[in-house]
Amino acid sequence: MRILHLNAGNETGGGMHHILSLLKEFNRDEFILGVLEKGELLEQAKALDIQTVYFSNRSKWSIPLIHKIASFIKQERIQFVHTHGPRANVYAKILKKMASFHWIVTIHSDPTRDFMGKGMYGHFLCHLHLNAIRNADRVIAISEPFRTHLQRVGVENGKIVMAPNGIDFHKKVDKPYRRTDFGFSDQDFLFFMAARLEPVKGHQIALEAFAKLLMGRTDCHLLLAGDGSLMDTLKNVASQLGIEKQVHFLGHRQDIDKFYGMADVTMLTSFSEGFPLVLLESARAKTPVIASDVGGVSELLCEPAMGWRTTPGNVRELTSAMEEAIIFRDQGKLQTMGEKLENHASNKFSLEIFAENVYNIYLGMEHVHDRIKSRWM
């Protein structure tokens, strides 16, 4: 098989790690990563010795670029194009009219929220994207709730296949940072959140809940790793809430793994997720999580003993979960919770299982094609 994974190339978070982890598991001769922009994804893929191709272009939307990709597909005899992200998905719909290949889409986030906060232009892009994915041959849902949501937005049930996210639980990760490296003490309670600073991630909810938590106490800190369009806005919100001294904006980091083990709890306050890799990474470090109940979160936190699920956008529930986490630490229960989470996650959401599920999708599509072809020969 010859398979091209296509992405805009500007991924830096869970989407990037999803693609790289998957391609690392596969035969290097069969798989190629194509990107439309130079960035961290391309550089990391090269460092991992993954076959890569950069489709250079002067603008995000370009007819010559589409012709360039179509020529590459024909020249390299690509049988499958596996797209990730709105731009790649829209391009693939056009490419299907220019070249022959099987088209698979992985949906990493709620497509109705991908352009949240962008007004009428965002509504137009959302419509364009939804129209594209409805035309794919297969649509991979990375959590069971996503299957239902994809049906709701018009994707045929027969096209949807399940492949829950997974990470390498055998990976040797760096030792966590020491608290003293950042001026924290062992008595401080550290909440850690790794997410793009964009509306869909719900940082404002986290800040409001944290402000309520801090009433009457000064031994808690919220560490925010990530960059995005809301950086200045969120800093202003923290200042207005009077919590700027205990909220730490870490910016974009390539050493996220070293924070999980230092933190007491990992948080995620998203309004939409597919299956958040950051929660699996936290589970690998045996650090409990508090997460809004979206996407596949319920499949990971399937019982209260493994972490806290809160209603998206609910400040009161989030504050309550944070308060209970502090009590659990004082009672010595957080460590046990983290160990249960790691055991569950490593058995159900390993990278090996994830990669096998995806590869079986390719094989199934290839066999269907061969059977159809044999009928007419």
Summarize this structure briefly.
The chain is of the alpha/beta class.
- Work out the strand percent: 15-25%
Spatial order of the strands forming the largest sheet: 3-2-1-4-5-6-7
Q: How helix-rich are the residues, as a percent range?
A: 40-55%
- How would you state the average pLDDT, rounded? 91
Number of alpha- plus pi-helical segments? 14
Question: SSE order in H/E notation?
Answer: EHEHEHEHEHEHEEHEHEHEHEHEHHH
The biggest sheet, with number of strands, parallel, antiparallel or mixed sense and barrel status, is: 7 strands, parallel
Derived from helix and strand composition plus strand pairing, the structural class reads alpha/beta
Calculate Rg over CA atoms.
21 Å
Describe this structure in words.
It is a single chain. A seven-stranded parallel sheet has the order 3-2-1-4-5-6-7, with helices on both faces. It has a six-stranded parallel sheet with strand order 10-9-8-11-12-13, with helices on both faces. Strand 11 (265-268), helix 10 (277-284) and strand 12 (289-292) form a beta-alpha-beta unit. The chain has helices spanning 14-25, 40-47, 63-75, 86-95, 119-133, 144-152, 203-213, 231-240, 257-260, 277-284, 297-300, 315-330, 334-348, 351-375; strands at 3-7, 31-35, 52-54, 80-84, 102-107, 138-141, 160-162, 189-194, 220-225, 247-251, 265-268, 289-292, 307-310. It is built from 14 helices and 13 strands. Helix 4 crosses helix 5 and helix 7 (203-213) crosses helix 12 (315-330). With 377 residues, it is an alpha/beta fold. 42% of the residues lie in helices and 16% in strands.
